[in-house]
Amino acid sequence: MANSTNWHVSPGFESVAELFESQRSENPAGGTSLAVYQNGKLVLDAWQGQATSAKAWESNTVSTVFSCTKGIVAIIAARLVQEGKLDLEEPVATYWPEFAQGGKQDIKVKTMLQHRAGLSAPRTDITYEQLLDGHTVVDELAKQEPLWVPDSTYGYHALTFGHLVSKLIHCVTGLSANEYLQKYVTGPLGVDMWIGLPTDEASRLATLISDGGFKSANPEVGSDQYWVEKAMTFGGALPVDPTMPGGFNDLQTLGIELAGAGGVANAKSLAKIYSATVVETDGLRLLSDETIMDATRVASSGENVWHEPGPYPAWGNGFMLPISEHFAMPGGNGFGHNGLGGQAGWASLDARLGFGYTTSYLRSDADTQKHQQDLVKALQKLI
Hints:
Elements: E1 5-9, H1 14-23, E2 31-38, E3 41-52, E4 55-56, E5 63-66, H2 68-82, H3 109-113, H4 128-132, H5 136-143, H6 160-173, H7 177-189, E6 193-194, E7 209-210, H8 224-233, H9 251-255, E8 263-265, H10 267-278, H11 289-295, E9 300-301, E10 314-315, E11 320-321, E12 334-339, E13 343-348, E14 353-359, E15 361-362, H12 370-380
């Protein structure tokens, strides 16, 4: 075993750990972590590579998990539905009256969760300073008219999903998404994840490294690609390359609640949270089987409103779902969410399994999820 790879593995899962180790040579820099829980128990925990140029990746290293954050926020929303605090069929404005502006009074909670609300990007350009202030983005989204007829089709709400659903969580509970996460999820489970990184945890943070392929297409204003790119940057508040200044190596950016893409965690934390959705884990079961089945019915799939090229994932109520070989998940009745550059957090209801994978080396090409997907396929042979 290479000195730079560390793992704790239960009998029967050695082949997955060995595949993980072999992948290290394919990453020119950075580090990765992998974890699997089954039946509420940790069966694989592995990490390798460098957290920074001066420090090896360690068991408690954390990194930005990007859109995996949306999956965690979707868990919170599903739990609130389960508790009767949110009704999927109710208009969002029932809980958030200001949202009714711009002709949005009839948009339902489920429509928002399913990326069908027509709010994938703000119509106005957001500055970095406005992003940091914690209210401008939400205020603008509440005021604006949808970009398309709500519920007629879907478009990936890459960043706005987090602002919209976090605001809804706050309206219902009085807590932000991160406050709810700490009180009811990470605290009871004893895991490390934040949507808004505390400054005293920054020393554990891995530095993100880009493969150099994240570049603006300089699209024509109003074109499909214009709205796709704006959904990823808020129109200039964030850089297209997430490792550039003002991006996700910036502690100011990571310190605010970006519930669509700013979560910081490691694989073990993602895997344990997802484990707790499908089976009691350290005394906590977050979601019932019935809640999961309701939340993971396919609601949005196929070509989206901006005609982005496939392959296409599918979404339920905030969860990404496994409908093709490009979005495989271990076991049956899987759900979770990928993250930019190769991150992943998943659960399998049938296998009672939680899976987490993080990487600080960010791939921009068509094989961005190849490493975690190869690990998933290896895991599928064992369960």
